[in-house]
Amino acid sequence: MDRLLLLEPSKEVRFQGPYTEIVTSYMKLTNPTDKRVGYKVKTNAPRQYTVEPNNGILEPNQLQVLSIRLQPLRVPNTSTTYHKFMVQSMVVPDSDVKSEDLWRGTHKADVIDYKFNCILEAEQIQNGIETSPEHMQMTSPISNHSPINIATLQTTKLNNVQGIPKTNGISSMVDKLKTVVTEMKEMMKKSDERLLQMNNDSSKETRMLSEKLKARESESAMLTQEVTTLKERLQQVEEESKRQISLLTDKLQAQEAQFEQFRTTTVQQMSEKMEEILKQISNSETPTP
Description:
- This protein is of the alpha+beta class.
- The protein has four helices and nine strands.
- The strands form two sheets. Strands 2-9-8-4-6 form a five-stranded mixed sheet. The protein has a four-stranded antiparallel sheet with strand order 1-3-7-5, with no helix packed on it.
């Protein structure tokens, strides 16, 4: 099956810190075909990322930009090393179908998947740490464009702190590094609390939407029942009308037959009476010999 979408980037979704707040990356989807193409986005870490819009239908040659948001990271337990994204696409079979109904009952053979790795690019972590030559010698350089594992980074920092000889000015530097680690832990704790609050808010909104949907479904079921009842009543009225019309037609035909019989009998009687009267007149006018 030919490709239905052109994606940019085509293999990796990259993010650039700082990661103590929401970070956004973008992806372009283009439909190069002459058909309508539906798409939806999946990830193996749905609590860590949000995608807007995460599904839709692209007209021929239409471009759609997706906004991918990375939630604040829970350092050091969270790593994006194994985070994946997948964009699924398929030809829209019906011009009237909606995007939310497109993927119901689809066959795997009709779907084309595009898979992406999630790359978290390193940030220069200064945040109160002195950038003196002594400090530069204590920490190994990190490329601004290389993937980073936050857990490995913090472990390396802590090992460096423990390995520094606490003499002269270096002792104060160690204290500063410990302070930075403490601040990072506090930031991690606040990020966890914020993420938990966002999850709770999201759960509340989901429950509210679910309740509204159930209410709408109940109203729809009631309306459907009322329509069904009205149809049944209309059918009964129609059948009763046909029955009444049939009875009236039979009665009218019977009355017409009776009238025709009465008319025939009356005409015959009148004819016989007239003949009798004419005979009497004829007899009375004949002379007596």
